[in-house]
Write a structure and sequence with these properties.
The protein has 146 residues and is of the alpha+beta class. The chain is 54% helix and 20% strand.
Amino acid sequence: MIEPARHFGLLSVILGLALAGCDTEKAREAARAEALQQKTDLCIEHLKPSLKDPYSVKVFKATVSPGNPNVIAIDYHAKNSFGAYMPGEFKCEIVDGKVDEGATRTLNAIARLERETAAQHAYNICLEESNANLARGEAGRDCQKP
């Protein structure tokens, strides 16, 4: 049988180790959040010159790519020429604390092509459904060309 004083000591050690683990995890999470913020700031500074109103940018979400921890995906809003806030997406690769311009340009070109391909695919499906409706003698659909 364990003596009460010894039992308390053992419990204290176990509790201390558990709390130390929590502190370590919190520290790791804080370090990850700080690193993401620093990379996001670098990306936004790189993006700003291409915006109509560079000081209007508001970041809504920034995430690290699961496949490449150097790639940051940012969802933001910024003012357009008419003063309206418009959503935008920007991907950025950070290498050695700097924006890799070539990789960033490529990432955004690929993302733009993926969005255009998805819009074209949706348009094609709409046209197919419209044609099927017309073949059945029903009204066609109003498909918006991308």
